[in-house]
Amino acid sequence: MNTAPQPLVSCLCVTESRPQFSPWLWWSYTKQDYAGKELVIVDSSPEPLVCGEPDVRVISALTGTSVAAKRNMALRAARGSVVAWFDDDDWQHPRRLSILVRALSSGATLAGATQGWFVEPVGRRALRYASHDGVIFNGLAAPTATAAGAAFDELKRRAADTSWVRRLATQAGEVAVVPELLSLWLCHRRNLSNPVGKYTFPDSLGTVRALVGPTDWGETDDRLTELVRRLRDDKHESSLKVS
Hints:
By secondary structure, the protein is an alpha/beta fold. It has one domain: Spore Coat Polysaccharide Biosynthesis Protein SpsA, Chain A, CATH 3.90.550. It has 8 helices and 12 strands. It is globular and about 40 Å long. The N and C termini lie far apart (41 Å).
């Protein structure tokens, strides 16, 4: 039996002035079945998030700091030997960290999924996505040293994630692709790369629910209802907590 200690995984998030998503982020993080984790948030809001949990660190950045620059800040702040991106508007599989750490333990220097779905949370519609270029940004994990060596291009205002993944893949030795659906993109008006008006959504969210399975899907439907209500009410809170 393998008795090697499990690595600490740093779950990295960058944000600005989107407190409506903080309960969703907190739920995505705390539902992970992997114990050895920390959450690192780089927040450039005028009033950054506040959290008193010992495994959560909020790092302030100047308002208007680019997403790419904040991602580099998050990489530098990671204490874990493995990193995974946890954007505040992504759905995360509750076993994502466990699945990816297990994949990395085989000797791979990059692990991740190649499939995902775009989800429109108000109408509960979805659009399938399959990558032909390798693992996807919000469904990967990598050793921190490898990830930090592929710095984000801070001159890019959008889509710096895509070029970062390509550089990371070229630096990686063995890439482990996992079959599970590990993450979903939520499409809404404030999503920088995937706003709700960018796509049409031909499938029901029930299709995604069935692929994930009832146990791993858990209380996602209720959480989506709460998130849509917060977005409509536009009530701002500056604390990271479950509402």
